[in-house]
Amino acid sequence: MELFSDLKLNPKILKAVKDAGYEKPTPIQEKAIPAALDGKDVLGIAQTGTGKTASFTLPMINLLSRGRARARMPRSLVLCPTRELAAQVAENFDIYAKNLKLSKALLIGGVSFKEQDVLIDKGVDVLIATPGRLIDHFERGKLLLTGVQVMVVDEADRMLDMGFIPDIERIFKLTPFTRQTLFFSATMAPEIERITNTFLSAPIRVEIARQATASESIKQSVVMFTPKRKDREASEKRQLLRHLIDSEGKNCTNAIVFCNRKTDVDICSKSLNKHGYQAAPIHGDLDQTKRTETLESFREGDLRILVASDVAARGLDIPSVSHVFNFDVPIQAEDYVHRIGRTGRAGRDGTAIMICNKRDRKNFANIETLLKKEIPLSNLSDEPDNFNQIANENEDFKSKSGITDENQHQNQNQNQNQNQTKENKSKNVKKNQKSENSNRIIGLGEHTPGFLSQSFNDRLAS
Ligand code: AMP
Known about the structure:
Strand order of the largest sheet: 3-4-2-5-6-1-7
Number of domains: 2
Number of strands: 13
CATH superfamily of the largest domain: P-loop containing nucleotide triphosphate hydrolases
CATH class of the largest domain: Alpha Beta
Bound molecules: adenosine monophosphate
Largest sheet: 7 strands, parallel
Structural class: alpha/beta
Low-confidence stretches: 210-214, 381-462
Number of helices: 19
């Protein structure tokens, strides 16, 4: 593999990269950086964890190292779907540009316009923004985008999910035709394809891992859930979640619990706290300071469980999450891949457990189709009475969904095991853990850089 020093980057940037503890460029960096330095448009198909942020930030800083910003006319623009992602890009920018005198402004909602106006008025080299806030500034006549030389669109597929595509098109049209565009998306939905065909000029396409296989080594399982009492469905489901967390014991050092709706994120988090689990919610309706605080304490290990919506959690760089619990089956099959991708990073052990009720089964089937594999049924051990029914339900569902006799047989054996003595149970758990290894899905494979399992601070310390 090439070294950073082989990529024709400004020595001051190389020094910052070295200080950050990076030795070799990741595959996306290796391919995207030379193309971007050559002034080409880049279409990067990759998700978080591949090092994609540096793959556009480094060449951008290189270009900006020459020249100066003019008032209200930023020289470059990075568009991100969420505030957290934008803040994360800004953090990266600070690390890599620390030896250069470049200025930046972060335009995100939940922060006062005034402070942002002052920065823009002075003139900034890079503007990192969410589309809505950028357009607000533009409409207030505070900003001109005609000086943008490089424009980055990060996590375009999430922009699509969030309905930002018209904003993105509008922003593209406000920037000069001659700009260089670096465009990143984990998937290439037809609408994304259309945008790239319209606004990118002969882009160099860099694809790192296919969406459907883009997870690292993760032990996956699903629990089929049927409430005992319809009127208590929600609370029984939360009880099941607690049971699943407990069953994982000490292995579950920290976890992200994903819910489909913001209201459920709040309810679930409150309920976990009420039952003595340390949890906090994160979703788009919470104010920015609170979101930042919550994330920080989760990153630092002070908070054990983060209950999240897809939008809030997407793209966040949180290393070493031991577990992902899908409280709900995601509506979009691709979101499953993104959610479970929060654990098992860089080949580390990761566990992803999903609760699936009757209504969710179509979405569940779509996920298995996307993955081109079956998600194994969970081995509920020590289940309270309530969950015997769930175990039976598991079998029922698999037989209805046309699973082979051999698999059914395995499931029956699993359930028999659950009824044995505790001693036998623990033996079985070990045995099952062994066989579960064969269910791991390997994604980035040889592309997975070993360092990705470490936090930035870990790398600095090591
Ligand atoms: P990203 O995919 O941009 O979210 O990056 C994932 C993580 O990898 C971040 O914590 C980066 O700081 C880190 N990273 C990016 N590139 C490298 C590299 N070449 N060597 C080591 N760490 C890196």
